[in-house]
Amino acid sequence: MAPTELHETARAIVAGHKGILAADESTGTIKKRLDSIDVESTEENRRFYRQLLFAAPGIEDSIGGVILYDETIRQSADDGTSLAEVLASKGVIPGIKVDTGAHDHAGYQGEKVTEGLDGLRARLDAYRDLGARFAKWRAVITIGDGIPTDGNIRANAHALSRYAALCQDAGIVPIVEPEVLMDADNTLEECWEVTTRTLHETFAALYEDGLDLQGLLLKPNMVISGKGCAEQASADQIARATVDCFLGVVPAAVPGIVFLSGGQSEVQATENLNAINRIGGPWTLSYSYGRALQASALEAWGGDPANAEAAQSVFVHRARMNSRAAAGEWSAELEQPVPA
Ligand code: 13P
């Protein structure tokens, strides 16, 4: 098949060991992040903070795409340039979160299903006009007593596939994100089993709906021990389990797998990605981190404009470390103390 614009966009986002900055926290989630540094979550503070990240000198060397939130894609930098254009002018591709959140799945105690399909075709057209060339939809799969159920996995896979089809129709690359949460007390083996079921069902839905696999990106969890599990797997064990699991269920036609960090510490997320790339697979293996790219930068900023430059260099350092990890060339010695 001749490469299409969708194929080219999907590949460009992860080319050259670059990854994605997930800066698409909903208004509720960004409030929690700002609360943690005692900054009030006003529209202006949210704008200032996102501008700080997007305008960081050198971001384009390690970040190929940024996922924005609805509010952010409509905001502008101090000089009036839209924030999407700030990114695009540096060759960083703007993306947009389009789901409207994970909500209780009726009839499925303790499980969530993601909403946002109603009116999505028109919203995608509007987002494309605002500069978005890729999108994100996050499904959440919860491990617990008797869950996830097959019915919940199927409902989430179906919604992901309908979203992805609408994106491709609109000329937007869908990021398909079925996230198996890592905050239970399950073992690595249980995460493997649930991730396999989830990815299998997701790709079955994508196949049934005729999606073009070369024109999408997969954003999954790593196969990892739950946070509450007494026995925590090493980076090498996580990498082996993740690659082996994916070889069984993710078609090689998918151009890129961009992991979420899901609550891992910054360095853990980098170390695990590096170990995964030391093994490698038929896909480009990179990152689409939110917390693991922003935690130190947020703290370095602390809401004080005088700290903006220091926060930018902390952020760019983190992005560089992950880009090294996407090449399988990261080592702990590269983690220099961050400039004050
Ligand atoms: P984390 O890397 O913080 O998990 O966020 C990534 C993301 O976009 C989740 O949808």
| Gap between N and C termini | 51 Å
Low-confidence stretches: none
H/E order of the elements?
HEHHEHHEEEHEHEHEHEHEHH
SSE class: alpha/beta
Topology:
Layout: H1 5-14, E1 19-22, H2 27-35, H3 43-54, E2 63-68, H4 70-73, H5 83-88, E3 93-97, E4 102-104, E5 112-114, H6 120-129, E6 134-141, H7 150-169, E7 173-180, H8 188-208, E8 217-218, H9 235-249, E9 256-259, H10 266-279, E10 284-289, H11 291-301, H12 308-326
Bound molecules: 1,3-dihydroxyacetonephosphate (13P).
1,3-dihydroxyacetonephosphate (13P) binds near residues 291 and 292.
Describe the model.
The chain has 340 residues and is an alpha/beta fold. The protein has a single domain (3-326), classed as Aldolase class I (TIM Barrel, Alpha-Beta Barrel), CATH 3.20.20. 44% of the residues lie in helices and 14% in strands. It contains twelve helices and ten strands. An eight-stranded parallel β-barrel has the order 1-2-3-6-7-8-9-10, surrounded by six helices. Strand 9 (256-259), helix 10 and strand 10 (284-289) form a beta-alpha-beta unit. The longest helix is centred in the middle third of the chain and has 21 residues, at 188-208. It is globular, with a radius of gyration of 19 Å. The structure holds 1,3-dihydroxyacetonephosphate (13P). 1,3-dihydroxyacetonephosphate binds at residues 22, 138, 177, 260-262, 289-292.
Keywords:
TIM Barrel; two-stranded antiparallel sheet; 340 residues; binds 1,3-dihydroxyacetonephosphate; alpha/beta
